[in-house]
Structures are given as structure tokens and as C-alpha cells.
Amino acid sequence: MNVKFFIIAVVFISGGVTSFGQSNLLNAKTPDEIGLKSIAQLDSDNDKPLSYGYVHDRDVLMGKTTWEIIDLSERINFALYFPIDTANIGSDRRSLYDVLTRAMKSGEITEVYTDSYFNTKKSLQDIQASLTRIDTTDAGREQINAGNKISDEYILKQDLSAADVTEYKIKGYWYFDKRQSELKYRLLGICPVTPDVYSINSEVKDYIELFWVFFPAARDVLHDAKAFNEKNSAMPISFDQILNSRRFNSVIYKEENVYGDRTVEEYMKDNAQKQLLESERVKDKIRNFESDMWNY
């Protein structure tokens, strides 16, 4: 009986500490006060992402870089996809795509690149061009050909939205820390995959890697943005926690290799089943290294 009361007490205490789904919801006198933390809450708040521990290169006994695909059509990955329609929902709930793009536009995220090797940086102007399509109707072209100024009503503007994101690609590093005798994972980059903005209305869409964000530089933004917790809305989970704890399902589509980091699809062509089996083989190879270490 004492154990039962102890567990109940722990649940209530932890719930009181971490209940920030909608701050000040029960004490708000007007809707504007919902979501605003009180001065007492701000003083006692230590809400920061859990910092990575320092890992010396000499402590890394084994390392392997992998690239994975997170399919947003899978139910377990819905927390990264929804909500896609934010017109009739609170401002505290946004999809991962909206969080990333807004933070880039506001300058909170600056480490944005064109590829997963983080070689070429993308400017805000480059990002805007890949997110928005500006076109002209036939009537507008006639105005241009006639030497007249084009009317605003003949200019079509279309933006990519969270609903257009089909999957995320992530790059990470698996390593065995010999000091702690543990296999660990460190997420390095994340990339939304969407149709090319100029093929978005076509029957056959051209899917592209929109941009690569260097994950460690975006952790503060992703920690402040909360995903929906369907089991308990009083305890939302941040996108940083979801990604770092690997609370998603993914498939490895590439590992670093001697063939110029070729993808699984390049040497397992036209056979989806073999590609999935190869992905599992790569996972098992990494996991088996840790188990083999305990056999000697």
C-alpha cells in the first residue's frame, strides 16, 4: 500500500513540475493570457535542451555515419507532420516544417546548407526562392508583351506548406563510447523532402531535398517548439526530445562507404524488398558491434 501511495505522489509531483502544455490555462482571465508564463514560473523555469556531453576522439572505438528516411505517412511519425492547417488552431502548435522555416526567416536558425555534407551554405534569399513560386497568367504575359505594367491580379504566388512535406531525411553518427562502454547516436542534420515548388501542380512531381539544417545549431529552437502528446496534453514533448530520443520510425537509405557513399537504391535496383532488407542489415551490423564487444 505504501508503494502505491508513493507512486501516486511521484506522478502528481512530476505532473505539477512539467505541466506546461498551455501555461497559465487555469489562471487566465482573458484568452490573451493563455500560454503566457507567470513571473513565478519564469523564475523557477530551467527549461533548456539537455546538453551533449563532451566526447573525446580517443574514446570513440567505432563510428559509422548513416542517412535515414522518416516517412511521414506512418502513424508513429505524425507528431512531426501535424498540424498542417494552422488557421483554426492555437499558435503554440506548429508542425516541424513550420518551426524550421519560421526560425530561418527570423534568423534564429542560420546553419542551413544545400547538402548533407554541410559544404555550401544557403542564404535566406536562396531559401525563400525554393519555398515560393511566382508565376504569371496568360493575361499578364499579354500585358508584358504590350509593354504595359503587369497587374497584381495576374501574378500568381504559391508557397510550400507543411502539407507538402512527404518525408524527412536525417544524417546521424553511430559511435561506441569505450569510456562508457555504450553504443550511442548523435543526430547531425535534418532535411524536409517536398515537391519542387515549380512542379507542385503537375501530375508527376519532382521531389527534392529542400535544405539541410545542422541539427546541433537548431536545438534551442526545436526545444522551445512543442509537439502534440496524444496521451497527455499537459505534458507536451519538444521536437528536440523526439529526434534525440529517436521516437520515430525510419529506414536507412545510405551509409558511408568506399563507393563514394552510394545509396542502397544504387546497388539494390528495382527491388524494394531487398532495399529494406539491406537497410536492416546495416542496422544489425551497427547493433552487433556493441553486443560483440561483450563477448571478449
From TrEMBL:
Pfam family name, one: GldN
Q: Which InterPro entries would you find in this protein's record?
A: Gliding_motility_assoc_GldN
Name the UniProt record assigns to this protein: Protein involved in gliding motility GldN
Please name the taxonomic classification of the source. Bacteria, Pseudomonadati, Bacteroidota, Flavobacteriia, Flavobacteriales
